[in-house]
Design goal:
Elements: H1 2-15, H2 32-50, E1 57-59, H3 61-67, E2 71-72, H4 74-88, E3 98-100, H5 103-109, E4 113-115, H6 119-125, E5 127-128
Helix pairs in contact: 3-5, 4-6
């Protein structure tokens, strides 16, 4: 019986924190302007995130033929490519996740057929970084 009482005594000592180990919280030194600057920094980073696909870039020749413009943003170029795909009915009727490429699309993708998820990668590659 004595060994079991030692174990329970050890557990009690480990669980009970001493009053000297309590950490006092220091009063915050941040004033109202400090909080506003954090919000401004967050807003600036959000603006940068939003502008990633919006800035217009020059397009390479195969994408110019499809989009009918020399300079577009990535978002707008992708919209125009999808518009081209739907007007020419290039989606595979059996599998709607595949695009069957015509002559202009073959110049862009260098494939007979591509997955719809891969379209953005082909559009990005056909844009020039300025």
């Amino acid at each position: 019986k004595q060994p079991s009482s030692k174990k329970s005594a050890d557990k009690k000592k480990a669980v009970v924190p001493s009053p000297k180990t309590k950490v006092k919280k220091e009063p915050s030194t941040a004033d109202k302007s400090g909080g506003k600057s954090k919000k401004k920094d967050a807003a600036k980073s959000a603006e940068k995130v939003r502008k990633i696909g919006i800035t217009p870039k020059k397009l390479k020749e195969p994408l110019v033929a499809i989009c009918k413009a020399k300079k577009l943003s990535r978002v707008e170029a992708l919209k125009r490519v999808w518009n081209y795909i739907h007007t020419k009915k290039l989606l595979d009727p059996q599998d709607k996740t595949r695009i069957i490429c015509d002559d202009k699309m073959k110049k862009l993708t260098k494939c007979k057929a591509i997955a719809t998820k891969a379209l953005l990668g082909h559009v990005k590659n056909a844009m020039l970084n300025e």
